[in-house]
Design goal:
Blueprint lengths: L6 E6 L3 H9 L2 H10 L4 H22 L4 E6 L13 E5 L2 H9 L6 E6 L12 E2 L3 H9 L5 E11 L4 E4 L2 E6 L5 E7 L2 E7 L2 E4 L7 H13 L5 H9 L8 E5 L14 E4 L5 E5 L5 E5 L6 E3 L5 E14 L1
Parallel strand pairs: 1-2, 1-3, 3-4, 4-5, 4-17
Antiparallel strand pairs: 6-7, 6-17, 8-11, 8-15, 9-10, 9-14, 11-12, 12-13, 14-17, 15-16
Helix pairs in contact: 6-7
Length: about 300
């Protein structure tokens, strides 16, 4: 194995303790703040120790198989991943999804759980100790891969945003979203709390919670395929997305028929903003990374051409 040319990117994150130190300048001030509120500061310290040890072990192990570049999640959006890089993400699930979002070449991603006693990790099938066996197999393309369909929002001015879990289109704050929704030859004007467009990977998250809320409101199980979506979501590699409108409001000028459905390659979803200055589109729950979606702007929601690949 040519370890000189193989590039491996190890994606990490700051621990809660590190984030507290950034906020309060010193560990002593962080400790005072947490304990003053009655919380257990030792839990932050224990989590920090376990994570740093996982990072150290991962770096040493991966270094046997290639040149390792450690990358903090804060630099993901600006980092250019080499097309032949192997990407290793040291949990949690959100970090795996966030990493997939910024890959442009479908590089294989290994999700590693740094602390199995603390995190469940749906997207983290491996532990640090597994890397010695998994890494050479992944480099040699001898590991199975789970393909992940992604969503894309494209604005009429050329800006675009990708999503691994879901897209939110709506208001910046707690006011009504106003927009025209179009699909095929159907069109409606909406006043709502916004839309969620979910991928298969995200279908057991925010999207599923909205279906659960709808079932609770009507007081019984949802019917047919919708109940199946609520209970199980849909496949990560599905050739469609699902959308649902949050709290649609019927009035003389707004309708509530186009509030749930699929987005396919042949049937994208188009939205025309009627929001003066507070419309946004963000993905995967990251509100800081958003597109402005204001009056007159058209957004086309479709399946992305790129896709993610998770090592299994």
């Amino acid at each position: 194995m040519d370890t000189l040319n193989q590039r491996i990117v190890l994606v990490t994150r700051k621990t809660r303790l590190e984030e507290l130190i950034v906020r309060f300048n010193t560990i002593e001030q962080a400790r005072f703040y947490v304990e003053h509120l009655g919380a257990d500061f030792s839990d932050y310290e224990a989590e920090h120790r376990v994570y740093l040890e996982a990072v150290r072990t991962a770096e040493v192990t991966l270094g046997r198989f290639g040149r390792v570049q450690r990358l903090d999640r804060g630099f993901l959006s600006n980092y250019l991943f080499a097309p032949d890089a192997l990407v290793v993400v040291l949990g949690q699930d959100g970090l795996v999804a966030n990493t997939l979002k910024y890959l442009k070449g479908a590089q294989p991603v290994i999700g590693v759980n740094p602390d199995p006693a603390r995190w469940d990790g749906v997207l983290l099938p491996f532990e640090v100790e597994d890397l010695a066996g998994i890494t050479p197999e992944a480099i040699a393309k001898k590991r199975p891969l789970n393909r992940v369909t992604m969503a894309r929002a494209t604005l009429s001015d050329g800006q675009e945003l990708h999503a691994v879990n879901d897209l939110f289109i709506g208001p910046r704050s707690h006011v009504s979203a106003r927009y025209q929704i179009q699909q095929g030859d159907r069109s409606e004007t909406h006043s709502s709390s916004g839309l969620i467009v979910s991928t298969g990977l995200g279908s057991t998250g925010w999207f599923q919670s909205l279906l659960a809320g709808a079932a609770g409101i009507v007081g019984h199980k949802l019917e047919g395929s919708v109940q199946g979506l609520r209970e199980h979501g849909f496949a990560w590699d599905a050739d469609h997305l699902q959308f649902t409108v949050r709290e649609p409001f019927p009035s003389r000028v707004t309708q509530v028929e186009m509030v749930f459905g699929q987005v396919t390659r042949k049937q994208p979803l188009r939205l025309v903003s009627q929001m003066a200055g507070y419309g946004v589109i963000f993905s995967d729950g990251i509100e800081a990374d958003f597109l402005e979606f204001n009056a007159g702007m058209t957004a086309t929601i479709s399946l992305a051409e790129r896709y993610g690949q998770l090592v299994n």
